[in-house]
Design brief:
Strand content: 15-25%
Number of domains: 2
Mean pLDDT: 93
Shape: globular
CATH superfamily of the largest domain: Isopropylmalate Dehydrogenase
Strand order of the largest sheet: 3-2-1-4-12-11-5
CATH class of the largest domain: Alpha Beta
CATH architecture of the largest domain: 3-Layer(aba) Sandwich
Largest sheet: 7 strands, mixed
Helix content: 40-55%
CATH topology of the largest domain: Isopropylmalate Dehydrogenase
Oligomer: single chain
Radius of gyration: 21 Å
Number of helices: 12
Length: about 350
């Protein structure tokens, strides 16, 4: 059995979404066992009336919740009975537990991962890598998307290596096309760090580096991974998600503005439904934290059951592909050349 922890509190729809997502994941993977951390009474209420194999679910009582408005370091240090910190300690101390999924505070999760879990040998800093859909029906990863605001060229190369292995071994993408987020496509574009990173990525034969990428091309389908500092990557992801949502709202508003448009929309109802599902980030899981010694997946704070189940699936596939071991093997080849 592969054992995975689910932090059941901290998200907008917790704990119901976390519990429902957990049950969905259990139905998909027969060799999966889940440990749910959070207020036991609340978790039991969410499970009430549901059909599931009780031998594959364990509940660990954790009465406290870390809020997204709390200072990460203080929360990690003081809220030891929170659902997140209990899960982190169990992940650290129990070798039979492989991974953890949380929809709680991003800052607290990163702080706890760095101070309590640790990194894959050779990794400078772990990085988040969320997935977005592309216009040709594929997917693109963005690494980093918020864990590291300031980076070095060596860190950007590590992000490229980690995310390339992730896309290849978890999503089955052969020779993932790696791009560096920059202000232009020419090799000399950007500041000194990005110019150095461009040279390092070009000098890393194990990855398929295809050059710089401008942000407007993120969903074009020409790239499988975009490498960025955490600040730029986070802005890129949220701007893209926000634009998609606002376009859907405007389309709906325009359709209802005229009777003729309503009739046309009725004929295209199936297409509009498909497009809405295509752009719904809930269908693409969360941001995996690449580079930690144990697997951690951070779901959106607004995650519903579908997204939580997808996050668990991501954790499951990362463990089954032995991603951490593959990452360490390749990273150590370049350890002496990093900053």
């Amino acid at each position: 059995m592969l054992r995975v922890l689910i932090d059941c509190f901290g998200g907008d729809h917790s704990p119901q979404a976390n519990v429902d997502g957990a049950l969905t994941a259990l139905s998909r993977f027969e060799d999966l066992q889940l440990i749910l951390t959070g207020d036991e009474t609340s978790v039991q209420e969410c499970l009430s009336g549901k059909s599931y194999d009780a031998s594959r679910i364990e509940i660990v009582h954790a009465p406290e919740v870390i809020g997204c408005d709390e200072k990460p370091i203080d929360a990690v240090r003081l809220k030891k009975e929170s659902s997140m910190m209990k899960a982190i300690r169990m992940l650290r101390d129990d070798d039979s537990i492989s991974a953890m999924v949380s929809t709680g505070s991003t800052g607290a999760l990163v702080a706890a991962a760095l101070t309590r879990i640790g990194r894959v040998r050779g990794i400078i800093r772990p990085a988040f890598c969320p997935i977005l859909p592309t216009m040709d029906g594929g997917r693109v990863g963005i690494c980093d998307s918020g864990a590291n605001v300031e980076v070095t060229a060596g860190m950007l190369r590590q992000f490229a290596i980690m995310s390339s292995l992730y896309m290849e071994h978890v999503y089955g993408v052969p020779k993932p096309r790696i791009a560096l987020l920059n202000v232009g496509k020419e090799a000399e574009k950007g500041d000194e760090i990005h110019q150095q990173a461009y040279n390092l990525l070009s000098d890393t034969p194990e990855i398929n580096f295809v050059g710089n990428m401008e942000s407007r091309d993120l969903l074009s389908g020409r790239y499988d991974v975009v490498v960025a500092d955490g600040f730029s990557g986070n802005v890129l992801v949220k701007t893209t998600e926000g634009t998609a949502l606002e376009l859907l709202k405007k389309l709906k508003k325009d359709i209802y503005s005229r009777t003729l448009y309503k009739l046309g929309a009725l004929l295209m109802k199936k297409m509009f439904a498909d497009e809405k599902e295509f752009m719904n980030y809930q269908n693409y899981g969360g941001s995996v934290l690449l580079g930690t010694s144990k697997t951690i997946v951070k779901g959106h704070g607004s995650s519903k059951a579908t997204s939580v189940a997808k996050c668990i699936e991501q954790a499951y596939l990362m463990e089954r592909s032995a991603l951490a071991a593959k990452t360490e093997e390749l990273i150590l080849k370049y350890e002496h050349y990093e900053d």
